[in-house]
Design a protein that fits this description.
The structure is a single chain. The relative contact order is 0.18. The protein has one domain: Helix Hairpins. The chain is mainly α.
């Protein structure tokens, strides 16, 4: 059951991630068109800053979604602990100073899978969008 619940949350987070990145791509295209008169350096700074902001927003949303799931299920009763655990699990750091209840270990491990996949998608997004928007030096 933990694998099913974790897979469903992974799918929901993946859909959220893709929606946010698609929206960010459209926003970055508009930003790029509006920055056409800017210097090359300013235009690149705007686009890179916007791209990184979108990716950080998407990853932060995942951490909050998983933290909410951990508190809602009772796996971690304190929200602060759930956010911390979620962040170190999502990024696969896994310090081990805050641990999830053993009944939820597999569910919690699914967050690490979510993080790995989402970081891969984010990397591809940034490389693709910057390559497309910044071609020929801006």
């Amino acid at each position: 059951m933990q694998i099913v619940a974790g897979s469903l949350l992974l799918a929901a987070c993946s859909a959220l991630h893709l929606l946010l990145l698609v929206g960010a791509a459209k926003w970055l295209e508009a930003l790029s068109a509006g920055a056409a008169g800017d210097s090359c350096a300013l235009r690149i700074a705007k686009l890179m800053g916007g791209g990184f902001a979108a990716v950080v927003l998407a990853h932060t949303a995942h951490v909050w979604v998983w933290a909410g799931a951990f508190t809602a299920t009772g796996a971690l009763p304190e929200l602060a602990d759930a956010i911390y655990f979620s962040l170190v699990t999502y990024t696969t750091l896994g310090y081990g100073d805050v641990v999830i209840d053993s009944a939820y270990r597999i569910f919690g491990a699914m967050e690490a899978v979510t993080g790995l996949l989402s970081f891969g998608i984010s990397t591809a997004f940034l490389v693709g969008i910057f390559g497309r928007l910044l071609k020929d030096g801006g």
